[in-house]
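Bumping my old thread because nobody answered last time. Still need a sequence for this structure:
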């Protein structure tokens, strides 16, 4: 299988990396490059291809390493990996980079319920300090008078608006929004199916058939084509013996014939995958599971937290039947009003969120308001939100115990 490198991606990374290893007169280059975009578009994989093409040594970190039960460990690890990349430059005589994948997943603040720890603060502070002083990166408890090798840092993620704003300012971070255009998508998908000898015209039609799907969709589609042969292998060997046949077997590895890579079959399998995606998004079994709790709670007295006064939370008894709210105009449909009352009636918090068309593709919603108990206030706020955001997407969110149990889009802008 050959792989396609987007010319735009290659140009952005090569310029950023090379720029940080040059001494340009009176030029202060940002040390960090933030590559952001919607999920599944191959940001990390494109980085790996560029590194291989340029012969660059890469030191990797992931979002899972940005938290620890011991305060200060992630910040120390970043400094350690940065200095490790510097050693690669000295020892191997090659350019090196520090790549942190899915950075916003470990250091971003998604909403008011995201826990913001000491380590999160230290990670942001450490990267800001390194960006300001890239040749003086010390480990805690020691000091090295020799200048540190300057190493470009690359961060990948989905939504960098969730990060601490001073980190993302232009002097520290250069931003690159990765959204492959049609030519990029055709090139990448053609690379995925090249060994299968799928015609270029069929690749273009396949990409046009699923224009809203991310790049990883097509890799999963190719993998799905082998399911039928694997199922036949299990039937031939026997489900009770398949483990012995596949693992530590003295027999030759199973051989598979070439699946059907015709355009019609690819579209058929892809359509089935899209249906599964929609079923996952639309089938909310948690509503069914919580329905019995809702029915049992009708008429009972529940304790609903009230606004904080002088640092103390005041709890007052609230009857479920008092949650009902009515619209003051015909802006809301009866179904939306019923949904708002149902969420509040189950003792959940109701969140109202908005997003513009561009950020909708990256699922980067902004909180408009949060309500609990008062259905009339929630409906009034929702009406105001709809009036103010006619060109944006609007959704309501049900939250129980800091977990989102339902998300419903109530307005889509007309195109």
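Sorry it took so long. Here it is:
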């Amino acid at each position: 299988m050959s792989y396609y490198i987007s010319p735009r991606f290659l140009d952005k990374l090569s310029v950023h990396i090379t720029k940080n290893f040059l001494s340009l007169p009176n030029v202060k280059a940002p040390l960090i490059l933030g590559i952001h975009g919607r999920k599944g578009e191959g940001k990390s994989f494109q980085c790996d291809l560029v590194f291989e093409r340029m012969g660059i040594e890469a030191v990797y970190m992931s979002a899972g390493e940005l938290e620890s039960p011991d305060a200060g460990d992630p910040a120390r690890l970043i400094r350690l990996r940065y200095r490790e990349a510097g050693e690669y430059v000295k020892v191997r005589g090659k350019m090196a980079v520090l790549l942190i994948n899915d950075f916003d997943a470990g250091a971003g603040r998604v909403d008011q319920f995201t826990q913001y720890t000491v380590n999160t603060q230290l990670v942001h502070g450490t990267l800001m300090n390194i960006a300001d002083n890239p040749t003086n990166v010390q480990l805690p408890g020691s000091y090295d008078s020799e200048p540190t090798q300057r190493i470009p840092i690359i961060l990948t993620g989905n939504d960098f608006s969730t990060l601490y704003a001073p980190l993302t300012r232009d002097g520290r971070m250069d931003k690159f929004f990765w959204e492959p255009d049609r030519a990029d998508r055709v090139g990448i998908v053609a690379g995925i199916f090249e060994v299968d000898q799928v015609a270029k015209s069929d690749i273009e039609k396949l990409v046009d058939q699923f224009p809203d799907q991310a790049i990883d969709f097509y890799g999963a589609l190719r993998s799905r084509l082998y399911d039928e042969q694997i199922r036949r292998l299990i039937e031939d060997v026997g489900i009770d013996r398949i483990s012995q046949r596949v693992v530590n077997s003295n027999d030759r590895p199973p051989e598979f014939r070439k699946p059907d890579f015709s355009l019609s079959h690819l579209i058929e399998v892809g359509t089935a995958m899209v249906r599964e995606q929609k079923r996952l998004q639309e089938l909310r079994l948690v509503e069914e599971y919580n329905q019995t709790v809702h029915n049992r709670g009708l008429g009972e007295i529940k304790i609903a937290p009230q606004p904080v006064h002088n640092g103390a939370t005041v709890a007052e008894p609230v009857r479920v039947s008092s949650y009902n709210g009515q619209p003051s105009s015909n802006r809301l449909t009866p179904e939306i009003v019923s949904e708002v009352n149902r969420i509040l009636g189950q003792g959940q918090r109701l969140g109202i969120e908005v997003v513009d068309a561009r950020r909708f593709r990256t699922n980067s919603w902004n909180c408009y308001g949060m309500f609990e108990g008062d259905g009339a206030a929630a409906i009034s706020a929702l009406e105001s939100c709809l009036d103010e955001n006619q060109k944006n997407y609007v959704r309501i969110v049900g939250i129980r115990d800091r977990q989102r149990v339902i998300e419903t889009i109530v307005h889509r802008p007309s195109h």
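Residues 73-92 form the longest helix (20 residues). Let me know if any region looks off to you.
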